[in-house]
Amino acid sequence: MVLEALVAANEGSALAYGADPWTEAATVSFCELFDAPVDVAFCWGGTGANVVALQCLLRPGDAIVCPAGAHINVDECGAPERFTGAKLLDLPCPDGRLAPEQITDVLGALGDEHHVQPAVVSITQSTEYGTLYTEDQIGAICQTAHAAGLLVHVDGARIANAVAASQSSPAAMLTRTGVDVVSFGGTKNGMMYGEAVCFLTPGLADRVRFVRKMAGQLPSKMRYVSAQFDALLSDDLWLSLAGSANRSAKVLADRVRALPGVTVTQDPEVNAVFVTLERSAIAMLQDWSFFWDWDTARNEVRWMTSWATTEADIADFVAGVEAAVSSSRR
Amino acid sequence: MVLEALVAANEGSALAYGADPWTEAATVSFCELFDAPVDVAFCWGGTGANVVALQCLLRPGDAIVCPAGAHINVDECGAPERFTGAKLLDLPCPDGRLAPEQITDVLGALGDEHHVQPAVVSITQSTEYGTLYTEDQIGAICQTAHAAGLLVHVDGARIANAVAASQSSPAAMLTRTGVDVVSFGGTKNGMMYGEAVCFLTPGLADRVRFVRKMAGQLPSKMRYVSAQFDALLSDDLWLSLAGSANRSAKVLADRVRALPGVTVTQDPEVNAVFVTLERSAIAMLQDWSFFWDWDTARNEVRWMTSWATTEADIADFVAGVEAAVSSSRR
Amino acid sequence: MVLEALVAANEGSALAYGADPWTEAATVSFCELFDAPVDVAFCWGGTGANVVALQCLLRPGDAIVCPAGAHINVDECGAPERFTGAKLLDLPCPDGRLAPEQITDVLGALGDEHHVQPAVVSITQSTEYGTLYTEDQIGAICQTAHAAGLLVHVDGARIANAVAASQSSPAAMLTRTGVDVVSFGGTKNGMMYGEAVCFLTPGLADRVRFVRKMAGQLPSKMRYVSAQFDALLSDDLWLSLAGSANRSAKVLADRVRALPGVTVTQDPEVNAVFVTLERSAIAMLQDWSFFWDWDTARNEVRWMTSWATTEADIADFVAGVEAAVSSSRR
Amino acid sequence: MVLEALVAANEGSALAYGADPWTEAATVSFCELFDAPVDVAFCWGGTGANVVALQCLLRPGDAIVCPAGAHINVDECGAPERFTGAKLLDLPCPDGRLAPEQITDVLGALGDEHHVQPAVVSITQSTEYGTLYTEDQIGAICQTAHAAGLLVHVDGARIANAVAASQSSPAAMLTRTGVDVVSFGGTKNGMMYGEAVCFLTPGLADRVRFVRKMAGQLPSKMRYVSAQFDALLSDDLWLSLAGSANRSAKVLADRVRALPGVTVTQDPEVNAVFVTLERSAIAMLQDWSFFWDWDTARNEVRWMTSWATTEADIADFVAGVEAAVSSSRR
Are the beta carbons of C61 and A207 separated by less than 8 Å? Predict the structure, then answer.
């Protein structure tokens, strides 16, 4: 359906750089979704969206506080530092979730010219470790951050999976908890490409148009991004897709849990299954199907499901795992 | 046909970040096109592609020599300076074309620690002014640049229009003239999005994968970019589309030339028509159809045609111009 | 006397990073000098001071408007672009002075996301061409800039020469004309090293402590900078030294003007003498005494005098010039 | 004696930017000291010297591996990230010393475009924790780094204290262990200001002149820096001063160790004394004499001695500590 929207947007001509009806409609949809007059900046990709969002919140000398395993810290080849010039203060968060006390711990640097100044807290929902923050936990982070003059950014590359898994809503989970800006993911939610930076706090988007262009994130034919979002946000399609991915993860976890030599290390909250299995079995499986090692020392790997994962896909994959572990145990 | 390719690429699943058959095929097509073992880095947009290409050629303290009217100098909101940290030495080029002597003029700075070091020459083909470099002119620029140790980048956002207009080929116009790297445009050539940075000189692409990711220009579902390029480069589709745009410009120029109060200021070489007409007529037309002022002082505007421009579009537009000028002359 | 101050500051121990009585005293002296509650940031060098000053005035996407011959544009190896990430919009100013109309000319970019946003006007007083802005000219620049929301920076590496030459004062020339921030030069005014960034407009210095440290411009033993300034600002020593340099330039100009083959191209307003003479004579003189070519095409060179220039120095140099020109004319 | 050198350098005039006899002489001294043809770049301050050194070793996408407590990581307000655009990969090193195995642990990122690329290892000698690397430990770090294609930088702000304490020499400790570049400290070794970046590996200094200028670290009157270094390196003055500081630390540690309520947490290897004492005693002492908290949670503070510390200074300070602890225990 997302692709159909894209084909439809291809009919006729349209003004470039966002002066088109699709972009207007998608922006209205975001305002309804967040129950707030959000400013929306459509961008190309996830790294770009994060960089644009963060830059709008930073002054020279400022630092970004984030979990050590954050995508912005480990998976963006230093893009945030390079573009914003800001340092990331990365804190150890074994399950991917930052605690408000960890923010408090770094506030001692405020006012000291030798140290970077904590200015933005960036958390990921759902986290890189497949875990979820509750609404209360996000609210507590915002309260601690705001009390000290810091702003809060949410990397929502998988925000759809988080909302679908928690029976919450963007308004309840992000707007009313006090989050300032969200990188709202499209690519991992069924789109071909495209992300949306949503500014929930008025005034923070004042410079975003210039920042986006300067970051190489302004899609000239923007309607192809916004039309996909427009389709995604209609009739809760985004939540159906994410919910399906989440369910697939649970099914996959339940199936492999039963196999000898496979340990599911945490119950999947969203669309990631973490398991340990023997090194030789991992190698055999990776030859056959791509996935990431998670923790090499522990032989832990991460399997992601998506909106496109079918029952047959799961069955095939489980059969592959079964063959690999039995072969490696012989 | 580009869209059909995109729909086809949507079938089934594929590995992310370029490890897919479409990306492999499109890369092979580029090698054939340039008649050389080019390294290709697919990117999101034109500004991003330029930034990625330039960064791969620069060391700290280096500067980019370019025409004052270059897209990288005036239309990218400072993205090159911001990302690369390099200064642009912009030189006056009334018709958009840089002359080799202008490169020589700035070489005096080489070796002086107070001045930025000219290291890359960036030219645009076809230029922002709708003009074309001949193969000999590009060859002379490369010779002058290389003799002094500088590299040459071509911003080819409209390279298709240039090749189509000149009965040349990428191999003759770019590879054999000595160009080092080309930003090969897709978006202005009929694609929904996507550009390709083509490294013609071996060794210059060593760091491009890291630079691209750091610049937020790595498309995760890269097949959607490469599949479009694959379709575009098949059966010379890219040249047909560009040729059509070029012909439309000629037709449009011929039609409006006949109108009282309209002066075509230069014969269109590619797909841009430059005309002067009265300020009030410009205003009326802009209310009705978007286009850019070119030189406000001279009442000169630029009208671009595209691969999608139809005979009917031209007829409609000419009628609009006729109405505007006759109304403004009353 | 400046050196004596430095020796005195060496006695006993003092707190680092500016928490010392010399820094406090020099700051008070600057407030008196500018007749305003200025924030002062002592820095190492001229390039660093300019970079610190400018960074405090810029937001992402902003640009600095300056004369093409500005020190920040041609003599700082791209330090402003590298550190601030901002583009310099350099405008042609044949005598080194920017006109208010030139600012107006670039304001069309405001609000257009494709273009960098003019945000700061930077002028040099006295200019790199040895010319002076009058108080009225500076006032007019500030008025035009402020009316459009831009701020004004003065690169005052030679501000002492300007004040000494014009019978003005820092308060009249800079504070009351509306200038926002000044890089107040020490090195060219007799100090061993050290510059002072003076913020005349309240609020602009909020981030300067972090910016200065991040720019590598925080002197740890700051008293050695501030003690020199303290001595310089006492009993108008800074104006005596600059006045002496200015007078030496006039004397030098008068002496060489009389020589055949030497043309003084402009009456020296401050401490720079611009002359044309034959290429062979220039070469002979440069073998003997260092100075910069100014305009190679015109055989124009720039001779600078300083606070330390003596009558004997002038006589020696004039004799050298005489020998060179007579030799080259043979 | 350093000041005397500076006064001497003030006599007569000299060419700017390092073309003077003092700079030549100091460079020769460094070559002798390192027993190698080192390239030397004199800079203003420690942060600037580190930034210049590191930038010369980095390509886009590269990262700097360093201990979490490194000065470049926590005490430079993000200057390295801001200027170089590179990420710092900071690793936990409880006693300030990096182990070769920690380098090995991060090499897995090499070649993966999503991750920054470890390219430079930066260690501090003596460390921020007052500890020393042995020659063998530095050699092992260099061997591990070089084997994987990484370069090694030593932040030698206190290299004099390290050499004085270890009966080693710069040649044995740095050149022959394989270190590539050293920030050789002057300020903490008795100079008013000035640091020297020493490139031990040929070829790495190719761009340093441009990098230094662009970083705002080129002293125009460079002779005032090099003359101080010249004096410092003559007759092993630098080692006498550092040795004196080291001895003072040992004396101070021995004296306070005897006091009730004071625990010296590690025997001073160089010029830092780490002690724990009651919070109230710390507060009283800090009201009276400046020093840094080290580990607030453990009530640990760091007291530094310097070349200028006298027996009387120590006696006074010990008396102050005695008064504070006895008062706080009442």
Answer: yes
